[in-house]
Design goal:
The chain is α+β, with helices and mostly antiparallel strands and 123 residues long. The chain has one domain: Roll (Nuclear Transport Factor 2, Chain: A). It is 37% helix and 43% strand. It has a six-stranded mixed sheet. The longest helix has 15 residues. The protein is globular, with a radius of gyration of 13 Å.
């Protein structure tokens, strides 16, 4: 497993290993959703969300990676049903441990399809 937490997260997601991805995060991590205004806190909600999106996303692939002082951004393409979706995972860390994941997606029609399907999974 790579020692870089951002590379490790990418590898875990690409191999669809939710457990490996969640282990990279601090217990008090924050997940910021593209469709819910309140943050999710902790690895329990993060695990549920990652499990859900991995079951919904089809043909998922990271397309670019950007690094900076404040964190790391991974751009991706995927599908939700018949809707093409583009997005980014914005990762932040502290002392080599991931502390925050923000996801942003477009277009609106794909985000809406994602919201509806995730709501059904998490209900």
């Amino acid at each position: 497993m790579p020692t870089d937490p951002y590379a490790a997260f990418r590898a875990a997601v690409e191999s669809r290993d939710v457990d490996a991805a969640v282990r990279l995060f601090a217990d008090d991590c924050v997940f910021l959703s593209p469709i819910v205004h309140e943050p999710y806190r902790g690895t329990g909600p993060l695990r549920a969300i990652l499990t859900g999106v991995m079951s919904l996303f089809e043909d998922f692939r990271y397309t670019a990676s950007y690094a900076g002082d404040g964190g790391h951004v991974l751009a991706f393409d995927t599908r939700v049903g018949d809707r093409a979706l583009q997005g980014v995972d914005i990762l932040r860390s502290r002392d080599g441990v991931l502390t925050e994941l923000t996801v942003m997606v477009r277009p609106y029609s794909a985000a809406t399809a994602l919201r509806e399907r995730m709501a059904a999974l998490l209900a």
